[in-house]
Amino acid sequence: MTTILVADDHPLFREALRGAVIRVIPDARLHEAENADGLYAMADAHPDADLLLLDLNMPGAQGFSALVHLRGLHPQLPVVMVSAREEPAVIRRALDHGAMGFIPKSSNAEALGTALRRVLDGDRWVPDIAASAPRTGPDEQEVAARVRELTPQQFRVLQMLGSGKLNKQIGYELGVSEATIKAHMSAILRKLGASNRTQAVLMAGKLSVDPDKVVPPDDTDD
């Protein structure tokens, strides 16, 4: 039986994706997540799923970071990005970071069905507008490779740091001590090749949809 994972924070779009999947594969088993933590738990629970449909802007993850992290944890899981951001450069970056395809949220039911069939058959599905986009730069590819080396907990800490949280806040939310968070931060800096929190956030920010809008954290919390 075909297993499809759907990760999107909008219930109406999850419903649309669910309908498209059922039209193509009536007996498919579907599992859904509405945020980053739910996404990672779902992927861990179903590592042999046939396909993951992943929203580009999941709460708890910045830009392409969730895709990069999942490709490191579950390289065998085919991922198709879905997004309202349809610029050629965004589509190209998704593909360069390991997506099997990219489905614009403006796609109608027929286009969704066609894309699903193609990807489940092992092909890529790429909108024509992406053909002219340049490949992702080596600096971003290098950051992606380093991010893939982070453990799940280190990745969570980095994402929370990127959202502006302090060590104490991160520790509280994760249920661990501030000392544990500092230990994670030391490992994150080492793996990213960063010298401080600000540099780490700016490096990880290269995986954001709009890297120039990344706001560095207060570096006094080291």
Strand and helix map with partners:
Layout: E1 3-7, H1 11-24, E2 29-33, H2 36-45, E3 51-55, H3 65-73, E4 79-83, H4 88-96, E5 101-104, H5 109-120, H6 138-147, H7 152-162, H8 167-174, H9 178-192, H10 197-204
Parallel strand pairs: 1-2, 1-3, 3-4, 4-5
Helix pairs in contact: 1-5, 7-9, 7-10, 8-9
Keywords: DNA-binding, Phosphoprotein
Organism: Luteimonas kalidii
Pfam families: GerE, Response_reg
Outline of the structure:
It comes from Luteimonas kalidii. The chain has 222 residues and is an alpha/beta fold. It has helices spanning 11-24, 36-45, 65-73, 88-96, 109-120, 138-147, 152-162, 167-174, 178-192, 197-204, and strands spanning 3-7, 29-33, 51-55, 79-83, 101-104.
Keyphrases for this structure?
five-stranded parallel β-sheet, alpha/beta, 222 residues, DNA-binding
For the termini, the CA-CA separation is 49 Å
User: What's the arrangement of strands in the largest beta sheet?
Assistant: 2-1-3-4-5
Rounded to the nearest angstrom, the radius of gyration is 18 Å
Which regions are unreliable across 5 or more consecutive residues at pLDDT < 50? none
Kindly name the structural category.
Answer: alpha/beta
Helix content: 40-55%
Shape field = globular
Written description of the protein model:
- The chain has 222 residues and is α/β, with parallel strands linked by helices.
- The chain has 10 helices and 5 strands; from the N terminus they run E-H-E-H-E-H-E-H-E-H-H-H-H-H-H.
- A 5-stranded parallel β-sheet has the order 2-1-3-4-5, sandwiched between helices.
- Strand 4 (79-83), helix 4 (88-96) and strand 5 form a beta-alpha-beta unit.
- The protein is globular, with a radius of gyration of 18 Å.
- The model has no long low-confidence stretch (mean pLDDT 90).
